[in-house]
Design brief:
Elements lengths: L1 H13 L3 H12 L4 H7 L6 H40 L18 H15 L3 E2 L5 E3 H4 L31 E3 L4 H11 L3 E10 L10 E11 L4 H16 L6 E8 L2 E14 L2 E4 L4 E11 L1 H6 L8 E8 H9 L6 H4 L3 H6 L16
Helix pairs in contact: 1-4, 2-4, 5-10
The structure holds 2-{3-[(4-chloropyridin-2-yl)amino]phenoxy}-N-methylacetamide.
């Protein structure tokens, strides 16, 4: 009996996994197990023998059963320990740095421009970036022989052989949006059309994709005086300078008559632009009174209505306001140079998620 006990206690202690314990349980106390067989022999004993052996066998069975469950519990504990060791986590490690986005300077400037004209009663018009050459050129009184229409400046959509739809282009200005607005809403009109435009050009001051905002005001008696006031108000607000001074230079655009290019008084000191002071003039935009043929193309009677229009390069005025030397920096580098030049939007902690690391 004692041998039997010692054997099983030892085997249970040596069992390394649950399956081995189960096999031992069957072998010892299962229906045909060693101890069960011994219990069956009780029937053949004398009552005296049975009185001694019965309780002993029962006690042995109990002892083995509790040894089995104790060993099973300790194996489970060890397995849990092992798993926890693998899943160990150092909660005192510093948190991973969070990447922070910020608004692109072009978007920032477009929003500034939109807000300023919005206060003056201009709403925003948008349209397709791919448009027919009629909307992009003909409607704007740009004839077929005009250099702006030459292949080298304009991106034309590919046409398969036999595809006879009218030619389409990547818009070279946002004017087609304004033609569409004239057709759709008629006069009077006060809109600006900001957006992407495309020209086949690439150097320090030109990128093949850039941004423009055009403006259009049409009414019974719109004049150049109102054009001048509107642009003065805009430039004062945009450059945040009280005494902006403008100079209108006679110019020529096919879509306006008369046409004027507008300069602002400025100074360049040590490469730093200052608006509103000094002896230099900086060309800032083009403008004029809408050509009667363009009003007509937009379905507006040029004998009843007249208006002014202007076009501003968003990228250009962004460069001037925030002192960015190379237009290409907008599109093919990161924001480090912006921090270097002190782009205001990056210094406003509450704007679009704030200071970036
Ligand atoms: C420039 C010149 C300009 C316009 C754009 C325009 C649009 C319509 C009718 C008449 Cl629908 N004009 N746009 C007018 C004058 C100048 O832009 O040098 N921009 C940077």
């Amino acid at each position: 009996m004692d041998d039997l006990r010692d054997k099983y206690i030892q085997l249970i202690a040596d069992a390394g996994e649950e399956a081995a314990l189960e096999a031992l349980r069957v072998q010892a106390v299962g229906k045909k197990g060693e101890i069960s067989l011994k219990m069956r022999e009780l029937g053949k004993m004398t009552p005296e023998e049975r009185q001694v052996m019965g309780p002993k066998l029962n006690a042995l069975k109990d002892e083995i059963n509790s040894a089995l469950s104790a060993r099973k519990a300790s194996l489970a504990d060890a397995a849990l320990e092992e798993r926890l060791r693998g899943e160990w986590l150092d909660v005192t490690l510093p948190a991973r740095g969070r990447r922070q986005g910020s608004i692109h300077p072009i978007s920032q400037v477009r929003e500034e421009v939109t807000a300023i004209f919005g206060e003056m009663g201009f709403s925003v018009a948008e349209g397709p970036q791919i448009d027919s050459d009629w909307y992009n050129f003909d409607a704007l009184n740009i004839p077929s022989h005009h250099p702006a229409r030459a292949e080298m400046d304009t991106f034309y959509m590919h046409r398969a052989e036999g595809d006879n739809r009218p030619p389409h282009v990547l818009r070279t200005h946002t004017s087609p949006v304004q033609i569409r607005s004239m057709e759709k809403q008629g006069a009077p009109i006060r809109i600006i059309a900001p957006g992407r435009v495309y020209r086949a050009d690439y150097d320090q001051t030109h990128t093949p994709m850039f941004h423009q905002v055009e403006g259009l005001a049409i009414d019974k008696d719109i004049s150049m005086a109102q054009l001048k006031w509107t642009l003065e108000e805009f430039l004062r607000a945009f450059f945040e300078v009280e005494g902006v001074e403008l100079r209108f230079r006679a110019s020529h655009f096919p879509f306006t008559e008369p046409s004027a290019e507008v300069d602002i008084r400025c100074s360049w000191e040590g490469g730093q632009l200052k608006v509103g002071e000094g002896d230099d003039w900086l060309e800032i935009l083009g403008s004029g009174m809408v050509h009667p043929k363009v009003l007509e193309a937009g379905g507006i009677d040029p004998n009843a209505w007249q208006g002014f229009a202007f076009g501003i390069g968003i990228d250009r005025i962004a460069m001037l306001k925030y002192g960015i030397p190379d237009l290409r920096a907008f599109f093919d580098s990161d924001l480090r140079w912006l921090r270097h030049y002190g782009f205001g939007a990056l210094q406003q902690p509450n704007l679009h998620g704030g200071l970036s690391g």
